[in-house]
Amino acid sequence: MGRELKGELSTAKKCVRMLFFSFSLFWIFLSIFYIQCIDGASLYNYEIIKIYPHDSNAFTQGLIYSNGYLYEGIGQYGQSALRKVEVETGKVVKEYRLPSQYFGEGITLWKDRLIQLTWKGKKGFVYDKETFSLIKEFSFETEGWGITQDSNFLIMSDGSANLFFLDPETFQQVKKIEVRDEDKAIKGLNELEYVRGKVYANVWLTEQIAVINPETGLVEGWINLTGLRGHLDSPSKAGVLNGIAYDTVQDKFFVTGKFWPKVFEIRITP
Ligand SMILES: [Ca+2]
């Protein structure tokens, strides 16, 4: 056999191997895609990175992170407040107390303004982020539970399976979606956080966070936070998990609950 022919045969073998390898890779990726599609929502766990102190008298209804501080919306009649809190120490560095007829709920940041919902008051408040001075009020028709924003709209929950998208300047409802895991409507959507294109929602009375596609309303994942309460010194006194904050710069998650003496920085794991 001539040297040229041998060379051609060797090249042909390499091509066949490459083709086989590419074909195998294609099938592996197709299989992974298929498994994810037919299995519905992905399931995630968590790992505790750090534990910080938190006011155990705070009935946490809203939590966000901005520039090194946590901002917290506190509930209950006569106790409701908006707070700026040092992460490391849990020290409250600024506080606004709501009039006693209002039960404070979720909070979010829109530009240089903090927005806070009330539960049954059908009213929300807009504050200056630095001074906490009240700028204006707005109205809505439902109960107020959680609130976040996606840079275009405010996104609000009312304890049902619905998320409401509001214009951040006029507070008018722009659209509404129903959140579902496959065919099942997920009721009790509570504290919210917008994270990298998804809406994360505490589901009331559970230790699960739903990861929601805001375009379709479909739950694409569940973060199981079961066991977190076991790290509280007196878990029986603590209420439900409620409060997700996300540090977009450092990619950090902070979670806490109603009357929890701790805030947990967690990493979400497969
Ligand atoms: Ca939040």
How does this model look, in words?
The protein has 270 residues and is mainly β. The chain has a single domain (41-269), classed as TolB, C-terminal domain (Neuraminidase). It contains 1 helix and 22 strands. The model is unreliable at 30-38 (pLDDT under 50). The structure holds calcium ion. The site of calcium ion has 8 residues, from strand 2, strand 16 and strand 20. Calcium ion (CA) binds at residues 63-64, 148, 191-193, 244-245.
Task: Kindly summarize this structure in a few lines.
The chain is mostly beta strands.
Order of helices and strands: HEEEEEEEEEEEEEEEEEEEEEE
Main-sheet strand order equals: 16-17-18-19-1-22-21-20
Mean pLDDT: 91
Instruction: Please state the overall shape, judged from the principal axes of the Cα atoms.
Output: globular
Summary keywords:
270 residues, mainly beta, Neuraminidase, 4-stranded antiparallel β-sheet, 22 strands, 14% helix, binds calcium ion
SSE order and pairing:
Blueprint: H1 3-39, E1 42-53, E2 60-66, E3 69-74, E4 81-86, E5 92-97, E6 104-110, E7 113-118, E8 123-128, E9 134-139, E10 147-149, E11 154-157, E12 162-166, E13 173-178, E14 180-181, E15 184-185, E16 189-195, E17 198-203, E18 208-212, E19 219-224, E20 241-247, E21 252-257, E22 262-269
Parallel strand pairs: 1-19
Antiparallel strand pairs: 1-22, 2-3, 3-4, 4-5, 6-7, 7-8, 8-9, 10-11, 11-12, 12-13, 14-15, 16-17, 17-18, 18-19, 20-21, 21-22
Bound molecules: calcium ion.
